[in-house]
Amino acid sequence: PGFAQEKQFQLNPKDDTFGNRVTLVSDTLSVPCDVERDSTHGNQIMCYTRAMPAGQYMVRVSVNGVSIPDSNLCRGDYKSYQCSFYPVWYRTPTIYSLSPVSGPPGTLVTLRGRIFSDVYGSNTATSSNGLNIRFLRAYMGGMPCELLKPESDELYDLRLDSETSQWGYMSCKMTGTYVGHHNLSYILDSDYGRSLSEINLYKVSALDKLSMFQTFAEVTGVSPSMGSVLGGTLLTIYGRFFDQTDRPARVLVGDDRITCSTAKHEMNNKVTVYPGGRGLKMEVWNQTRPRYLTDIWSYNVNTTGYWTQWIDSMPHVFALEIDYFSSRSSGFLVPPASANYTIYLHCDDRCELYLSNSSRPEDKVKVAFQTSFVADFLQRESQKSKVLALEEGKPYYIEILHQEYSGAASVNLAIFQEDSSFTEDQTDNAVNEVQDIEVKYDVFDEEQDQFQSVPQQLWWKHP
């Protein structure tokens, strides 16, 4: 009779057994295959596979709730190659790196990976490496990530390393206005499919979410610029992307303006700087060679070679052409939860990390340092702070002093929290807990008491 045709198009069925159902089954796992109803007819079913481990999977099909028996699968040889599916690593597109990792909605992002093809759409027969594979679409956080420039057939960037390579770069522009956390993926046609991202691309956010990219809103202006220290001033904040968030602003007008009433300002002469927007302020002085890193504190905006930028992600890698410079990065660390933390420092070439127990720069103390280049965070004990008990939501002033001699230059921080809801299988940011369980027991010799049997005739008998 063939596969289901009419019933598979019912809307809002009373049960989910109608139409065609496809399941891929291995010796240890069963994974649904999502039927593509528009391409399915009486002699053919098409379905989209889901993520699954590599191996052999047999096809199981049910039609209107009735499973096809094994005797009707490949003439009874249901484990044959013709009736099996094999997910393999060499047919899996990858994402090896992503840049940038944060920005406002609409950011142009670039990935590097094993992309197999430099063709998008169906107007070109084959890729430059000879493979008959095409990019179908890309997604960032559930929304399309556009490969083509608006109103044109020109790609942002889609290229292979060479005519014999499967590795290359792809750029796409995010759509939508959601502010939050996103993951990037793309889909190829033929016998390939959805991309697999390297595990080190998934970062743990302050909201305890795993993501590859974070979008943020933008503030473009404030009006009025002055008001009463006793509060009550109606303040308007202008910007973009205030509307699409998980936690909307208290008062919202459209998507480009927030109005709020200021609170009374408590005068505090001890406060010299205030927490502001996201990221750190990085100040750089070219062609400087301080004897001690603390000499950087004597530099200012009038010192020769000064320039500045804001950074909001780590590691920060400097341009290769910049040599013999010093930098100071300052801002606030705001813990997402009250817990014990350890801060790790790594740079090229030398650096020092300072932290305050308050928001005051004057209270800062050195908590970690690196005197010369090393490969990573874990090479020297000095790169690690002591265990710090930090409070949720409290801003702690943080500062990094850094010096570069020549060659590559970078600065990086890592913050370790003792408790996590993630494992090493989900992100490189997590460390699995290892417990040593010691079992002790005592050994005693068994002792048995022996009794002589009593003759049966001596037992008391009731009349």
From TrEMBL:
Domain of life: Eukaryota
The UniProt record lists the keyword Signal: yes
Keywords: Signal
Annotated GO biological process: nervous system development
PA14 domain boundaries: 275-429
Pfam families linked: PA14, TIG
Keyword flag Signal: yes
Stated name of the protein: PA14 domain-containing protein
